[in-house]
Design goal:
With 341 residues, the chain is an alpha/beta fold. The protein is 32% helix and 15% strand. It has ten helices and ten strands.
């Protein structure tokens, strides 16, 4: 299996929505909206490819924004990525997807188009904008009919936690290709939509049962949140190979290991979900950034709770959720229910 390195590339800030949990707009500030120019896009792409060649990794791009399809060079970028034979997917909105757009995406080798559903109709439209729920369901079919796998990503918080099991029914009924969810990451220390550890564990139990019920459906379910590892470990479904080395990180949060985020300004973040700028792809080598500027994100012994846990090498929860809660990514994951002595 190829050793992938994932680049989440925000090519612009402009968007049709102002989602309440968006990292760009959630603070309702007067942020200048940036669109990366074509020459800079070429420079960033080549920089990423160079890094992967030097490290022996296979590049994978998640092209996003804002809504990436609004970028004036969107199709030009996809043509370049396709011509270079590089894997990619799109993370965007449903509003500009037509039969023609979906076919062109398929022709250019788009492996997947990720859309969002953050609850059932009323809740999702509250987070996004009126009508967003129904048009998302409509465009799932448009994409799948064209041969592009439509995936659904949900952001789970105390606001919508009770709706996630029923939302799974909805995505299966609509033949979604892939479904996953991640937890809401507070965008400022004052915000609170936090679930208790027990509430979140109960959700995973309910969702796990749903996944078993739909095992033969057309929908593939990914266990994106690393607390799934703890959940399955406690159920005896995740076993640690005793032959594995004690000083090697095998799984868990990809921050510092196999993921970087690039913003329209060229700024590079270890993780987009927290304040983690490590360089700039327009002025620095991505190879140098990854090797020499990310030590803080690989100091696993500094995690105050995880460092004492037998699952350190396989889980580590979500440092971004920890950071959003306490402004310290090494603090305990607020939804982790593991008791550590």
């Amino acid at each position: 299996m190829a050793d992938f390195f994932a680049f989440q590339w925000h090519i612009l800030d402009d968007c049709d929505q102002r989602c309440k949990h968006c990292y760009i707009f959630s603070e309702e500030n007067d942020k200048e909206l940036i669109t990366m120019g074509w020459e800079d896009m070429e420079k960033v792409f080549d920089n990423c490819i160079d890094m992967c060649e030097k490290t022996g990794r296979t590049p994978y791009f998640s092209i996003t924004g804002g809504d990436p399809i609004l970028h004036p060079n969107f199709w030009q970028l996809l043509e370049k990525i396709h011509d270079e034979g590089v894997y990619y997917n799109i993370m965007g909105n449903p509003f500009h997807i037509t039969d023609e757009v979906a076919k062109r995406l398929n022709d250019l080798g788009c492996r997947q188009y990720q859309l969002s559903l953050d609850g059932l109709r009323e809740t999702h439209d509250y987070f996004r904008k009126p009508g967003s729920f129904d048009i998302t369901l409509e465009k799932i079919k448009t994409l799948q009919d064209a041969g592009v796998r439509a995936s659904i990503m949900s952001t789970v918080s105390k606001t919508n936690i009770d709706e996630i099991p029923e939302l799974i029914d909805v995505v299966v009924e609509n033949n979604v290709g892939l479904f996953s969810f991640a937890r809401y990451c507070p965008t400022s220390i004052e915000k609170s939509a936090q679930m208790s550890p027990q509430e979140y564990k109960d959700l995973l139990e309910n969702v796990w049962q749903k996944y078993q019920d739909y095992n033969d459906s057309n929908t593939f379910f990914t266990l994106k949140d690393h607390l799934w590892t703890l959940f399955l470990y406690e159920k005896g479904l995740y076993n640690i190979d005793p032959n594995l080395k004690d000083d090697v990180i095998y799984d868990g949060c990809n921050c510092g290991n196999s993921h970087l985020t690039i913003l329209p300004s060229g700024d590079v973040f270890a993780c987009r979900r927290m304040d983690s700028k490590v360089g700039n792809a327009l002025t620095e080598s991505m190879y140098d950034i990854f090797l020499n500027k990310m030590d803080d994100y690989r100091r696993f012994e500094n995690f105050e709770k995880c460092s004492k846990c037998e699952l350190l090498r396989f889980c580590r929860g979500c440092p971004a959720v920890s950071y959003g809660t306490t402004h310290d990514m090494y603090s305990a994951d607020p939804q982790c229910w593991m008791e550590i002595e």
